[in-house]
Amino acid sequence: MYKCIHTRFDDKMPENDGVPIVLTASMIEMSDFNLNPFIAFSGGFPKFLVRKKLYPPVPFNPDGTAKFAPYGLRKVESLLIEEFGEENVVTVCPTNLHRFIGPKTKIVGISTMDPLGIGFVSRTYTSIFGINGKPATLVEFETLLSNPALRKYRAKIIVGGSGAWQISSANMQHELGIDTILIGQAEHSLIQIFRKALNGEKLDRVITMQIPEDKEIPAIKKPSIYGTVEITRGCGRGCAFCSPTLRQRYSLPLKHILKEVELNAKRGTRAILLQTDDVFLYKSKPNFIPSREAFVKLIQDIDKIKGVDYIQIAHASLAPVVYDRKIVEEIAPILVEKSLWRCNGKRCASIEVGIETGSVRLMEKYMRGKMLPYKPEQWQDIVVQSIGILNDNGVYPLATLILGLPGEQKEDILATINLLDRLKGAKILYVPLLFTSEEECILKRQKHKDLKNLDELHWEILARCGRHDINTWKPEINKIVMVGSLLSYSYYRWRHGKKIFTVIMKFSGLEAIFVNRKVGAGCQPKYCTLNLGHINNKAGK
């Protein structure tokens, strides 16, 4: 296990003999990455690449508790405060655990998203950068669990959160010294479990939580990191690699949402991050038809709240953008005005979307609902048209691609490359990811895709996406990338063989120099020539 020195730990007894329930998360999850939720993706990179200054801890309140905390942990905190009283529950950074864990402490609750570094981002980019480095998320989780304060008074250590499944799946529970792992959503089952633990009753080592009803979801009582506020939960589109598709879908009431926004704004978060698996599901109609009136009102109402300097939407699907482009046209001015982002000096908004593949066959097999109300064979047109609409309104999305879906064939990869060709010139930040079979998804029994098993065409996609991202977002670092690529060529050739030559040439920009052209330069996005009416006619709109 990773070892560290806890410089702030001491053997002094905490005031009042500690607090019965202490909540925390690793240092990397108790940070807002300098108010940059997209840079938080770097937590999945090897630790030697992720410096501490990238993820400073959240500030403390005067009593030593965390001023901000992960949204899921704040939900848990709210449930526990309602049941056991505020004086019996605290949320703290790992560096302050020794101030609150004492003889009275019965439970230390830990929330985690990617404890072992085997999520999509961690597996992909730790593999790409290589050098056998542990991902930062794993290092910080091990550091948390090696904190002497956790063991001193023998409190029960209970771990939950979206990444808790990783620990039980890897049979690491005993090694990490975790008493109980909670799998699933907390709202329905948590109180009963914590009451048993407080009473000294024995808990199962792994507990699968029951699905809550929407009325059981509490409002947070204290501010969240990024000013996160949940607006919908669940998805229902049925993507086989994704866990939210298995959750019941519902929209939170507007009053509930605005209450949390106001709390965050009053307590100094500055930004509001709208947590959703697809923002266009907010009060959506049957067959995933977006509700323009409800969604636009939501954004406008949030914009009116004093203290909201920035608004960021977490995720969106692309089909609704094509179905009703006026939604984007009406909300984009607000999102751009209250955006954190710049692209080549120009203010822009961003949002995470899933392109995943250009293959109609794979879309039909694994993601039939992703393009509703359209059909799988329209997927490429939908992607190109929607990205065009977003770009035209100053929204430059972060787009994921999944490499190595089960059963993927050469023609599927070529279809994705064709889609990338059609998107030349578009303002996108591509994030290619290796297929990862997560516990709470339909494909959970399928084998992960590893870097060593990638097809040469997969490497082509990785190189093209990297080159596009640099040209679009950071062209000023081209010389640094070129030199770094040349210096690292021998290492990557040793690891991956001769095929890496063309990858390095393309990614570094050297290929473009040698053929006297820049990748994508001078090309106009083909979405400019698409017929939106043609797509909508096929959807029966």
Structural class of the helices, strands and pairings?
Answer: alpha/beta
Count of discrete alpha- or pi-helical segments spanning 4 or more residues: 19
Report the mean per-residue pLDDT as an integer: 88
Shape: globular
Distance between the termini: 57 Å
Q: Largest beta sheet, briefly? A: 6 strands, parallel
Strand content: 5-15%
Helix content: 25-40%
Q: Which regions contain 5 or more consecutive residues with pLDDT less than 50? A: 1-10, 517-531
Instruction: Count the E strands.
Output: 17
- Integer-rounded radius of gyration: 24 Å
Lateral strand order in the biggest sheet: 2-1-3-4-5-6
List the helices and strands and how they pair.
Blueprint: E1 21-25, H1 71-84, E2 89-91, E3 107-111, H2 120-129, H3 136-145, H4 148-152, E4 156-160, H5 165-169, H6 173-176, E5 180-183, H7 190-198, E6 206-208, E7 228-230, E8 232-233, E9 250-251, H8 254-266, E10 271-275, H9 292-303, E11 310-313, E12 315-316, H10 319-323, H11 325-337, E13 341-343, E14 346-348, E15 352-356, H12 360-366, H13 379-392, E16 398-403, H14 410-422, E17 429-434, H15 456-473, H16 478-496, H17 500-508, H18 510-514, H19 532-539
Parallel strand pairs: 1-2, 1-3, 3-4, 4-5, 5-6, 7-10, 10-11, 12-15, 15-16, 16-17
Antiparallel strand pairs: 8-9, 13-14
Helix pairs in contact: 9-11, 14-15, 15-17, 16-17
